[in-house]
Amino acid sequence: MKKSVTIIILLFIVISFGGAMYYLYAKNAEDPITYKTATPSKQNIIKKTMATGSILPLEEVLIKPNISGVIEEVYVEGGDYVKSGDLLCKIKVVPNLTALNNAKNTIEEVKINLDDQLRNLERQKALFSKGVISKVDLERAQVSYNQSKQSYNAANKRYDIVKTGTTRGFGNAANTLIRATVSGMVLEVPVEVGNQVIESNNFNEGTTIATIADVDKMIFEGKVDESEVGKIKENLPLQITIGALENVVFDAVLDYIAPKGKKENGAIQFEIKGTMKKQDSVFIRAGLSANASIILAKADSVLAIKEALVQFDAKTKKPFVEIEVGDQEFERKDIELGISDGIYVAVKSGVKSGDKIKVWNAIENDKNKN
Fold first, then answer.
1. For the segment 42-89, what is each residue's pLDDT rounded down to a tens digit?
2. CB 312 within 8 A of CB 322
3. Type and span of the H or E element at 1
4. Three-state SS for 225?
5. Contact, 345 vs 307, CB < 8 A?
6. CB neighbour list of residue 82: distance below 8 Å, 6 or more residues apart
7. In angstroms, what CA-CA distances link 197 with 71, 108, 354?
8. At a CB cut-off of 8 Å and minimum separation 6, what does 178 contact?
9. Is 366 helix (H, G, I), strand (E, B) or coil?
10. 310-325 pLDDT, tens per residue?
11. 348 has which bridge partners?
12. 306, 319 in Cβ contact below 8 A?
């Protein structure tokens, strides 16, 4: 019994020893792991954040009528350039029957008074010629007649205005002639001949006849997330790209950041605006969607390495790289980093041009992979 146990133990030892020797032989037979290297290079690094929005005119004016009626003629269309005072359209007044009736009654009342003052004036003239009244009484009768005559003329003009929207002597000041109040391009004419329009007053915004803007002064209007708004500030440079215009970048300056955010789709968004620099060679249409790169920091021609090459100490959290000092021999070097664009990071100290920096990922031979 004891002899059998001894034999089993010896066999187990021999088998274990043989397995260990085979494992060591197999490990020594594997090809050694090789590491690729990369060298620093000169890069232009731009640290930026993105905002989405659209291109809008800096000043956009809505032309509204000051009288209600029906569009009789339209003289402009979208894309036309106009100057302040140019005629945009003509409105045909549809009179209010109550106002028209009141104006007509006023004329009749004033006419009765005018006839009475005329008879009184004739009577005073006859008395004055006989020496019965003084010249002062005659002049007083003349003034009363003149006032009644003026009231009669005013009542007739008021009636014409209620009925047609204008009257003799007003010329370009007629309410039925809608004119441009500013110079610029007509962006939109939302009305057509035959459309009814409502006047602009204290109780109603009125119907928009046309939209006019100076297209030489355009701005980018967009929104940034609350996680990014703390990184930006006014007067930062912007680079605007417009989806409809390929391979064209427009420069702008950030000049407005909303002090209050608005909740949209569960996230807080802050409105921003940037004034674009004019480019005579490219026409930018209002309303185009665009993206803005907000330049937070920029460094030109600096020594940089790929961020993938940087390692961090487990205890100190300080960055370092491994520099090749021999054939597949590497030495740790602490480095000081600058700005990063997410791909390249500037290196202030620790490495120099020509150093071969270890790439983390080991490259095994195809034979071992298979």
1. 988 988 888 999 999 988 999 998 888 889 999 999 999 999 999 999
2. no
3. none
4. strand
5. yes
6. 76, 88, 180, 183, 184, 185, 186, 212
7. 7, 31, 75
8. 63, 65, 87, 88, 89, 90, 91, 209
9. helix
10. 888 888 888 998 888 8
11. none
12. no
